[in-house]
Amino acid sequence: MPESAPALSTAPSLPAPPPALLEGAALFLDFDGTLAPLADSPDAVHVDDALLALLADLRDRLNGRLAIVSGRSVATLRDLGFADFMLAGTHGLEFARPGEAVDGPARLPAIDAVEAAVTAFAAEKPGLLVERKSISVGLHYRSAPQCGAEAAALADRLAATHDLIVQRGKMLVELRPGGADKGSAVRTLMAQPRMIDAIPVFIGDDVTDEEGFAAAADLGGAGILVGPPRSTAATFSLEQVAAVRHYLREAAARLG
Known about the structure:
Layout: E1 25-29, H1 49-61, E2 66-69, H2 74-82, E3 86-89, E4 94-96, H3 109-123, E5 129-132, E6 137-140, H4 148-162, E7 165-169, E8 172-176, H5 182-190, E9 199-204, H6 210-218, E10 222-226, E11 236-238, H7 241-255
Parallel strand pairs: 1-2, 1-9, 2-3, 9-10, 10-11
Antiparallel strand pairs: 3-4, 5-6, 6-8, 7-8
Helix pairs in contact: 1-7, 3-4, 5-6
């Protein structure tokens, strides 16, 4: 089950994480806005070979203690190039190890119903984009920010009608089943034998990552916020995606 709302720091800025932070760590990485820049459309985001090579090297140096924890579905993460990595998708509702089937709930009929509703809504609002996921549906308004309040209100109504929850993100509302979040994903992954004695470190940029930061802190680790200062449960920060990659390269070199 998802954890209660994390305690947030209101400090205007946070220090950069030391490379030594990843020594003995279990590393959990958000994808969009953390490993790759945000784009107007989810389909416009691509994973380059240099990133995959960096993550594979870091995973090996951490003895396999690295996972991608994303709002994207496991199927999409695999299509993007992460098939060889441990994955937690759809905000902790899905899990998969390399070469294994996805462990997650079946798609609910309610998701089909709300997808039809948001698709009809988006058809009348230029710039809105419906993202169909394995077990959820997202409505993006990055290209139509003036529709944000209306999109959120629609999502709230549909969630109440169909017993779903609304996951809010950057210029996004997503309708999905409850019972998990990125914090519960971290706790589930940390229960695996290879992770038990490790120190969790979660890197993410969105409000959807706050539960991941809080879970990492509760388990003796830390969160790293990517992007401008805001209220957060993270302990450290990095300015942008490029800074994340630089930090991961430094950390990997230190791990030897």
